[in-house]
Amino acid sequence: MTVFKVAVIAAARGGFIRAAPLLAELGARPELEVSFIFAGEDYVSHAASEVFRELALPYADVVIAASEGTPAQRLAKIMAGCERLAVSGDLAAVVLVGASHALLGCALASARSVPVVAHADAGLRLPGSAGRISLAARIDRLATALMAASEPAHCRLLDEGALEDSVVLAGSLACDAVAQCIGRARADNCPARAGLQPKGYALAIIESPYNIDRLANLHKLVELLSRAQECLPVALGVNARLATQLENWGLAQAVASLPRLSSVEPAGYVEYLSFLDAARMVLTDVGGVQDEATFLGVPCLTLAEATDRAATVETGANLLVSLDLTLAMQAVEALTENEYLRPPLPAAWDGRASQRIAHALTALLRGNAAPG
Amino acid sequence: MEIFCVAGSRGERAKLSPVIAALEGEHELACAYVSCAGAVPTWDSGAQPPLALQLAEATPILRAGAVLRWLEPVLAEGHPQVLLTCGSSDAAVGAQLAASLIDITCAHLDAGVIAAGYHNPNSRLLDQGSVFLLAPHAEAAQRLAYHGMEDATCLCGDTLADAAQPPPQDDGAPVPCCLCYLAAAALESPALPDLLDALQALAMPVLLPAEADAMARLTAARACPEGARRADARSNLRLVAPLDYAPMQHAVAGASLVITDSSTLQREAYLRGKLTLALAPGDFPEAVRSGWIRPVAMNQAAIVEAAGQPPPAQPAQVEAHRGSALRAARFITGL
Fold this sequence. Notes:
The structure holds 2 protein chains of 2 kinds. By secondary structure, chain A is of the alpha/beta class. Chain A has helices at residues 13-27, 43-47, 50-54, 71-88, 101-111, 129-132, 135-142, 151-159, 173-188, 190-193, 209-212, 215-231, 240-248, 252-256, 269-277, 287-296, 310-314, 325-337, 353-369, and strands at residues 4-10, 32-40, 62-65, 93-97, 116-122, 145-148, 167-169, 202-205, 234-237, 261-264, 281-284, 300-302, 318-320. Chain A has 19 helices and 13 strands. Chain A starts with a strand and ends with a helix. The A-B interface holds A 70-73, 75-77, 79-80, 82-83, 101, 104-105, 107-109, 111-112, 129, 132-133, 135, 137-138, 141-142, 159-161 and B 59-62, 64-66, 68-69, 71-73, 93, 97-98, 100-102, 106, 121, 124-125, 127-131, 146-149, 151-152.
């Protein structure tokens, strides 16, 4: 039996979460020799985090770490490291999980010497030129096997001229990770310990620089949180960037004084899922959260003018409200007062994306290896 | 700074130069030129650019990485509105990555071409990562449209047409002679000895400019006798030191036949109305259709036969490309 060497490359927390089920699925196939590659900035703190333990993620076989220097110096170092791996590793395939400059560098470094460059969660695009030049689009363009995250993503890739044979409707790996961990998340019941009633609060996860780093937008965000907590309790997921900017702009006190807003700091992925699953709605600007909420049946209000998660919007699970206070509050009030009719899940969002990717990749490698 | 231009090869410089000339005066411009180890360090006889990098790195990724590191502080300090790249060199890739890290809009000249095949990751990345795409011919524009980039594309024509300087005045009947320039594809081909046999079989002198590494390869391919730099009375091959841009253009203008694997030189020769034998695929379909570029690969018999055929009766359609640089400049200005 021919054994193919496959490297799964991830660069950051979101990529690790989605890589975990894929690594397990690929690793179970005897014809594949799978390695896990870290290509990013700070491996040690990631490896020490709860995420590795919660998702049974193996430690990386190869660490291409670039934590010092300017962004360009770090990217150049990652590209060089990945090129060495691609040239010397006798790899049959690399699978890139995520979309970042580091992964774009890896895609470029692999494209000349690795027969199959696959991109998981492919085809995610913002509308317009921003989507066309996005990191995800550029990685997709370099990839030879595109594992589309959803039906709209699949269509988008074909519209962009990708060969039909190179695109597979795999589904979102985020769903696989949720499926893997939701049982433990429900057993943990973190919201109750935080004094939050199941389906009685809104979870807010805000990470976009557009909303955090611009004072006018941060003001709007705080105003929205203030108005929302008048309708129902709000659990604000605190992250370092948001906390720093609230402090820098003198808004931390205003947020802390909101009577029905509590800050939560989930220790890991399972704890975060526990808060998300029990929420009545989620307000977010994070793509991964939109996927996870849709999969869990939690209505999502996206605080952005556009999203690359078209499947979540098309099914009705996700509403784009931007930072439009009127629109956002109409949605918050409606979701607070009315029963939520859960829409059907997007096609292929059944928690088996990793199986489809593993199947397609194996078939592709066998086909490449076949004589003639 | 409004526009920052990066050229990573002689061809890219040639294509960018007329666009830069058309933009100068209206915009604050800065340029960087990058060349790889072994290449001619001077681009032409004119003034050197304010920024120049001589690369010694061995692989495409290391070269792109070196340019990325080099340009990051330059772009961060000047923060141009537009980075203008051209072609598919590693330098162009490094520059685009540097711009991407600090959110500078990229425009790409010579977009949609597939001289090295669209499997070339550099070509694909540079087109995909640029907000504005300047296509040299209809096929390139159609290719970009096929990949969903129609709205971003301007079919401006081949700016090499504007770069081409007027040929020297004829002083009498033209003397048949051939200019042969060999780039990596030909020099690294196992068929190199066959090619040299074909060149020696031509009934005309063959001028063969070659850099040091090319000279070594040609010598190793046994066609070049000792003292190859001197004209050998027994051979029609004339090995000469590499030519700067302007002398090279004069050599093209003075030749009756051009043989090359360089895509850029194929286009330059066509735009000067010269019959060209293409040793490797280029990307100028209209010239191939017209018969002025004849694909012969590294096939000895095909080279000899194609060289013996007269040029097409229909003159090369060069005029349609005149003004391409101005169209490109207007498009960029419109940004």
